[in-house]
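The instructor's notes for this session suggest beginning with a concrete chain rather than abstract definitions. Hand out the sequence below and ask the class to guess, before any prediction is shown, which regions might be ordered.
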Amino acid sequence: MGRRFGRVGLALAFFVVLGCLFAQVGWAKTYYVATWGNDPATHVDGVDGTKTNPWKSINYGDAKRILLPGDKVVVAAGHYYAPNTANGWIIGYCSGTPENPITYVAQGRVILDGSVQAGGVPRTVDGTVVLIGHATSGSDNSGRADYIVFDGFEIIGSSRCLDVKQYNNLTYAETGVIVRNCILRDPRNKSGGAGGQMILANGIHDCQFYNNIIAVTDTSLLGTARAFASQNNACRNKFFNNTIYINGPATTVSPLVTNGAFFITDLNKTCVGILDWTKLEWGVNDETGDWTQYAWNVCKTPNDPPAPGDPPGTDYRNVLKNNIIWVKNPLSHGIWNTCNPVIYPEGGYSTRGHDPGLVHSNNVFSPAGVNGVGGLRYLVDFLASAPPSVEHNCPWPEDAYPHFHNFFPSEFETNSLSFVSTNPNSPDFFKLPAGSPAIDAGVDMGLPYYGAAPDLGAVEYIPTTYAASGIKDALGQASGTVVKLSNVVVTVGNGTLLNNVIYVEEETRAAGVAVQSSPMLTQVAEGQRIEVTGTLDKSGPQPIVRALSVKLVGGSGGAFADETPLKPLGTPNKSAAGEVGLDNTGLLVTIWGKVTAVDGSYFCVDDGSGRTDGMGHAGIPVLISEQVTPITTPTESYVAVTGVLGKKDLGGGAVTVIRPRAQADIR
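After discussion, reveal the predicted structure:
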């Protein structure tokens, strides 16, 4: 804490609580990790963990208790080999907050490899590659690592790829972890066979898994391969927009193995699909115990009384939506024949009842069955106090395997023509073709999607992406074109403007454009170099790219990318937004002039160029109502304003406007 308290100043030393709050949030820092880095015995702030002297281990900042809420760890492109230990890289000591998580993000392609040691030396210990959660034991909260974001990594498993786990044998749940935009694949034990799980979640709540690819692609792996194994889960977890792909000859393959509040299954039956284990008779049933355990045991539906401190109607259910789950060669089980359920909640284990209910919709499930024979789709626990909510899912191929728990309502039947391709090796695997009734039939979850709304089964067919030579080239394409912008510079980062809008420019300052991002995509900051793929939308006053993916661009040879912010261009009002000279719409500029008309949502700055707000007021409108942090109208008569130029209709037709990023942009 001391490393940042000094920045607050001695004048605030007496205000300890406020000082600590500023220390943790006001001056969040970015640290750097690279394969060529070094882990010093003692950390020196400003000396190590920098771009020029990075750490070598992704968890160094956590292990040394350096990281504070809001901090970010940027990992340079490269191949990293996990420690030859059961817990791999442990992220288990430093926590973020709901508003300011600690973020670990890949810059370029970062491979975290647990299949072998460096130099190809075989591992001697089975375990996980990364453990996020509670690494210590005891009766207090020391060692917790809540509110962690893990973004954009490719993890090759040891016996597991990633553990997200509770603390002290379920005394405290692991809370607020977000795993997004990752590839988790091919778990391999030390003997060379398939490992256990690609993700093992144990005792979690308010955790989110978004936009991940979870796969077994190595056909040499034999043994058990489970995509998502979850046990003793708490509540309010989300599993959205993931692709689960298991194509190897493994003798046991389970796309999602989840339990606790996600799904419950019999420990004695190995099944393919979404499984779950639950623990017998644990937790408390009154308000004297831990909140999480109380919620697990008591709060089953939104109609139940909430856990202490929560408002009435709190929904504790876990949600599984818009995923693609595909398995080849599921295991046959005696009397159960082909037992490959996708959802398998079987109750009767806990005498206190069942975990909170499950919501699953808009998913495509395709366990192909043994020898082409289909298997079970949903096994619903009718004894549960909150039976799962199942709607708008799409099993493929359709079958009617007889079982009284078989339950899979779907709004349309499927066949080989329901998808562009049913070949998992095709880039169009399970994409929905034009005209499919599943297009725009999903539930809007705020996740990236192509089209007017999310689709059943996560994604429809996206036309060939246009690799633009630059932003200007991309803006010349027809509205609706999917474009890719490579190595563009962020001028307005996430968390600045409302509705997740960011702005990017070309390094040469030739053009800029607004990008509609999402909380589920990689979050970016001013100065970072990124790659954006998205749908061009030219229907409004100014074009915008609605992002499907956002990736940090790494430097060459494992170096870090340049993160120097672009400086604003000084621009007379007459030249703003292409009225005279080149079109600079979307660029970061500075204008100046006299403050004229003041409205609740904007004020005008006039330099005598004849610009107006379209409503008869002289000057370029400065929008002050679109920022996450409110901006106030200046009291000065003359100001300079920095911001991005754009177009907006304020009531009299589309006019040139400028969007400042923060109060400091007005001076």
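Then share the key points. The domain at 466-554 is CATH 2.40.50.200 (OB fold (Dihydrolipoamide Acetyltransferase, E2P)). The chain is about 5% helix and 30% strand.
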